Amino acid sequence: MAAFTSARPGEPTPAISDAHKGPTGVLEIPQRFLMGPGPANADPRILAAQSLPLLGHMHPPFLKIMDEVQQGLRYLFQSDTKYTLCASGTGHAGMEMAIANLLEPGEKIVVGNNGIWGTRVCDMADRFGAEVVNLQTAAGTSFSLAELTAALEQHKPAVLFLCQGESSTGVHQSLAGVGEACAKNGTLLLVDTVCSLGGVPMYADAWGVDAIYSGSQKCLSAPPGAAPLMLNDKALQKIKSRKTKVRSYYLDLNLVGDYWGWFGSRSYHHTGMVSMWYAMREALAIVSEEGLEAGWVRHEQAHKALWAGLSEMGLHPFVADPKDRLVTVNTIKVPEGVDWAAVCKNAMDKFSVEIAGGLGPTAGQIWRVGLMGYNAKPANVELVLAAFKDGLTQQGFLKA
Ligand SMILES: Cc1ncc(COP(=O)(O)O)c(C=O)c1O
């Protein structure tokens, strides 16, 4: 090979170092069953869509795919709003986008906090200069409408945050009536649906939810990297009438929304995540083809089948009230004397099944089993049950 002589004509060139030479050879990945709180296994049809040839991020055929994504999201959110898009990033990008745009410094947010996502929203809102009211309830429980209404009347916040599916505790927060209570108090209702969208009912317009963010890698069966987001007219008006600039350029919905065609024309803001938006287009096509209701029923049936098997083994749910149990992320109490980590390790080593431990307030107390999207099916439930049976037998909890 001819020697490389100079970085630019006439400039001296240092010797190339191989000290940190990168990997070589074709990447290989073992097959795993991702039955923790996410990511879930991606649908092969979605992975295939991601390997299609790239289009330019402003090419008309690509803009058409973005339009299809926006339309699919309207169905998923059950909203007629014009304002849907995907943030370029994981669920946290959606979370940060919502907080950065909906709140101005000094404005109040009441955070319904019953797990780590509420805690993170408190942190984020604080970083953006908001006044945070941290409304807490015990891990494993949800907020009643009466509790939320009292907090709204007392604080009259600009925003109320709730997490529909709290994946650290396995709680499903009811949203019925909350939108109405928010509207009466001049508050916008912001909901995290990262672990729930597509797996449990969402009726954004009927429930008066003003803003929602989510994630691609859970009930939508896509890889991580897209954060679906919606605003209704009221939430968009709030952003349009801000007195201060949104403090993040990358996440400013005035700019990102423009790229997604919210305001008529479209202009470049950042390079759209071309392959990731193909994945989202395909994920949303799968949701539309199955039908929302059929998808919700499938998730519920998987949850019931899981618990039928776990109960037979003598295991108990962490969430006491059956109404509060999230079907997509199931939380299971670790019995006295059982080494939870050994059960997870055995599941991975012997069954290639991921079962997760607790997180934040539930660390060391529970296992978490995700039944989301492509994974919410009988064969996966059986595999998880087999892994538990084997692990619990090794631990002496079940008789051999
Ligand atoms: C309920 C909930 N919100 C937000 C997130 C953050 O999403 P991500 O990890 O995709 O950034 C997660 C991730 O597990 C989640 O479960």
Automatic annotation (TrEMBL):
PROSITE patterns with a match to the protein in the record: AA_TRANSFER_CLASS_5
Molecular function terms from GO: alanine-glyoxylate transaminase activity; L-serine-pyruvate transaminase activity
Upper classification of the organism: Eukaryota, Viridiplantae, Chlorophyta, core chlorophytes, Trebouxiophyceae
Gene Ontology biological-process entries: glycine biosynthetic process, by transamination of glyoxylate
CDD domains in the record: AGAT_like
Region of interest (Disordered), residue spans: 1-22
Cofactor: pyridoxal 5'-phosphate
E.C. numbers: 2.6.1.44
Binding site for substrate: R368
Protein name per UniProt: alanine--glyoxylate transaminase
N6-(pyridoxal phosphate)lysine: residues carrying this PTM: K218
Domain of life where this protein originates: Eukaryota
GO CC annotation terms, alphabetical: peroxisome
Organism: Chlorella vulgaris (Green alga)
Domain Aminotransferase class V residue range list: 57-358
Protein family according to the UniProt entry: Belongs to the class-V pyridoxal-phosphate-dependent aminotransferase family.
Protein keywords: Aminotransferase, Pyridoxal phosphate, Transferase
